[in-house]
């Protein structure tokens, strides 16, 4: 057994990604420190970690975004490094610098690389110098007349985008010149509110593109590799909900070109650790740089399943200074993987987030099915954080096998007491466009909406019966049988009722 890369790390995150990192650390022999807010005092990641530190109130601005408290917790507990996960402070260059300044290791890229890719306009300029294809555009700045002239040169439709943003915020599609001013002003207001930076720029709007991203991995010794691609075109409100690898769109020649471009992009900013270079691919199979996510992606499991590497473990090893022991020629995709993001949301009502307590959760448990989650029976989905319940990931020998396995896994996933998107995901998977790989980034809006659930929701009587049956099952695994805790055999003894953590 090799020595662990660190003795102890702190995980500056929550939910399923915190649980995912904890499990990887356990396998490496690395002790973990969790941090938690008031809302997460009884969360799964808190109980799974070796230690846990309270860092503030429920709102993220009072807890998971308080970098100074997180660093203080790491120093107090003797952690050597901090893993930021994704979201929150994961792409905050100032936080990464503060971690390093405190004598700790930031498990991610150098702060300069985060900054270089954090500004969309600066990233475009860097990519152009590196020879990476970018969508025709205008970097922004100047008076409205400058934007208008640039839009005419580029040609409508135009996409107005926030320079410091992502996730669809500060973004507007402009079809005609007479709506450009309003779109720019609205995007600037939204960008200022979301990111504290109202700068916007223009790009040619690529109609019906595929969203294809390439996973990269780079060590501190100059090795930069790509781990092939993920197709992420099934999106709602500019947010991915289904990802897969390989992409049904790419052939080997295009895959090789996009992989080389992703490596060039990473090298251009001195990238280290795991990152993702995102591209748009148009109807003529031209690809254009979209952005680089300087962190671990939500959808990283599909890459893990097809290339056979644990990305979280390699994040730790790279941060500890280890060399990548494999080359580009060693990386091969085997089989097909699909991930569905299961959200507490209502697809029939504009995908509005849902809140409430999960009265019963039963995860599918069959070969080649993986569930990454941070919640289960008895846990509450609040309005404070992202409403994702779980990531369901499957692997199959072929894409057809993987789709069939995912459909069955979704049917086997029981979630009672909260509104969720599983019925919608099943309808997407069953649609001929998805089956034949024809889905583009605007497909959900154009094809699936408005959406109505075909089967009626479960009524309250069924929910009550399910919860009661679960309670009785826990209270009396075998009627009249004695247990180690209560040898009397009383099925109603409180000693026979285990809590949700099995204790």
Automatic annotation (TrEMBL):
<dbReference type="GO" id="GO:0004075">
    <property type="term" value="F:biotin carboxylase activity"/>
</dbReference>
<keyword id="KW-0067">ATP-binding</keyword>
<keyword id="KW-0092">Biotin</keyword>
<dbReference type="Pfam" id="PF02785">
    <property type="entry name" value="Biotin_carb_C"/>
</dbReference>
<dbReference type="InterPro" id="IPR011054">
    <property type="entry name" value="Rudment_hybrid_motif"/>
</dbReference>
<dbReference type="InterPro" id="IPR004549">
    <property type="entry name" value="Acetyl_CoA_COase_biotin_COase"/>
</dbReference>
<protein>
    <recommendedName>
        <fullName>biotin carboxylase</fullName>
        <ecNumber>6.3.4.14</ecNumber>
    </recommendedName>
</protein>
<dbReference type="InterPro" id="IPR005482">
    <property type="entry name" value="Biotin_COase_C"/>
</dbReference>
<dbReference type="InterPro" id="IPR050856">
    <property type="entry name" value="Biotin_carboxylase_complex"/>
</dbReference>
<feature type="domain" description="Biotin carboxylation">
    <location>
        <begin position="5"/>
        <end position="449"/>
    </location>
</feature>
<feature type="domain" description="ATP-grasp">
    <location>
        <begin position="124"/>
        <end position="320"/>
    </location>
</feature>
<dbReference type="InterPro" id="IPR011764">
    <property type="entry name" value="Biotin_carboxylation_dom"/>
</dbReference>
<dbReference type="InterPro" id="IPR005479">
    <property type="entry name" value="CPAse_ATP-bd"/>
</dbReference>
<dbReference type="GO" id="GO:2001295">
    <property type="term" value="P:malonyl-CoA biosynthetic process"/>
</dbReference>
<dbReference type="InterPro" id="IPR011761">
    <property type="entry name" value="ATP-grasp"/>
</dbReference>
<dbReference type="GO" id="GO:0046872">
    <property type="term" value="F:metal ion binding"/>
</dbReference>
<dbReference type="GO" id="GO:0005524">
    <property type="term" value="F:ATP binding"/>
</dbReference>
<keyword id="KW-0436">Ligase</keyword>
<dbReference type="InterPro" id="IPR005481">
    <property type="entry name" value="BC-like_N"/>
</dbReference>
<dbReference type="Pfam" id="PF00289">
    <property type="entry name" value="Biotin_carb_N"/>
</dbReference>
<dbReference type="Pfam" id="PF02786">
    <property type="entry name" value="CPSase_L_D2"/>
</dbReference>
<keyword id="KW-0460">Magnesium</keyword>
<dbReference type="InterPro" id="IPR016185">
    <property type="entry name" value="PreATP-grasp_dom_sf"/>
</dbReference>
<keyword id="KW-0547">Nucleotide-binding</keyword>
């Amino acid at each position: 057994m090799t020595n662990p890369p660190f003795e102890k790390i702190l995980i500056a995150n929550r939910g399923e990604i915190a649980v995912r990192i904890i499990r990887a650390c356990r396998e490496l022999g690395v002790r973990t420190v969790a941090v938690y807010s008031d809302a997460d005092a009884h969360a799964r990641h808190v109980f799974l970690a070796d230690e846990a530190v309270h860092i503030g109130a429920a709102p993220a601005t009072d807890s998971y975004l308080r970098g100074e408290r997180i660093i203080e917790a790491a120093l107090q507990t003797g952690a050597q490094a901090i893993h930021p996960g994704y979201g929150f402070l994961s792409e905050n260059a100032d936080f990464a610098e503060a971690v390093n300044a405190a004598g700790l290791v930031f498990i991610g890229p150098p702060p300069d690389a985060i900054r270089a890719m954090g500004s969309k306009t600066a990233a475009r300029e860097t990519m152009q110098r590196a020879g990476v294809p970018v969508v025709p555009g205008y970097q922004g700045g100047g008076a409205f007349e400058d934007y208008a002239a640039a839009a005419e040169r580029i040609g409508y439709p135009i996409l107005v985008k926030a320079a410091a943003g992502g996730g669809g915020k500060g973004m507007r599609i402009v079809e005609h010149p007479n709506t450009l001013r309003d779109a720019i002003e609205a995007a600037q207001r939204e960008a200022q509110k979301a990111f504290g930076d109202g700068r916007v720029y223009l790009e040619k709007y690529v109609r019906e593109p595929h969203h294809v991203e390439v996973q990269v991995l780079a060590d501190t010794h100059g090795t930069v590799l790509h781990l092939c691609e993920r197709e992420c075109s099934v999106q709602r409100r500019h947010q991915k909900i289904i990802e897969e690898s390989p992409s049904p769109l790419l052939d080997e020649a295009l895959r090789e070109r996009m992989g080389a471009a992703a490596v060039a992009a990473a090298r251009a900013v001195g990238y280290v650790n795991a990152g993702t270079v995102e591209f748009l691919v148009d109807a003529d199979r031209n690809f254009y740089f979209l952005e680089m996510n300087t962190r671990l992606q939500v959808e990283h499991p599909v890459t893990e399943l097809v290339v056979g590497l644990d990305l979280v473990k390699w994040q730790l090893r790279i941060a500890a200074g280890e060399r990548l022991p494999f080359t580009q020629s060693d990386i091969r995709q085997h089989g097909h993987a699909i991930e569905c993001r299961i959200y507490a949301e209502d697809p029939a009502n504009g995908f509005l987030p849902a809140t409430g307590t999960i009265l019963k959760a039963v995860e599918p448990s069959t070969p080649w099915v993986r569930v990454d989650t941070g919640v289960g029976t008895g846990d509450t989905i609040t309005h404070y954080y992202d409403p994702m319940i779980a990531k369901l990931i499957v692997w199959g020998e072929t894409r057809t096998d993987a789709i069939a396995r995912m459909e069955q896994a979704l049917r086997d996933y029981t979630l009672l007491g909260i509104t969720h998107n599983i019925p919608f995901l099943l309808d997407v998977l069953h649609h001929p466009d998805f089956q034949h790989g024809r889905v583009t980034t605007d497909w959900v809006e154009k094809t699936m909406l408005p959406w109505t659930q075909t089967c009626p929701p479960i009524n309250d009587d069924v929910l009550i019966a399910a919860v009661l049956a679960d309670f009785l099952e826990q209270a009396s695994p075998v009627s009249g049988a004695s247990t180690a805790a209560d040898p009397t055999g009383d099925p109603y003894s409180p000693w026979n009722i285990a809590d949700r953590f099995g204790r």
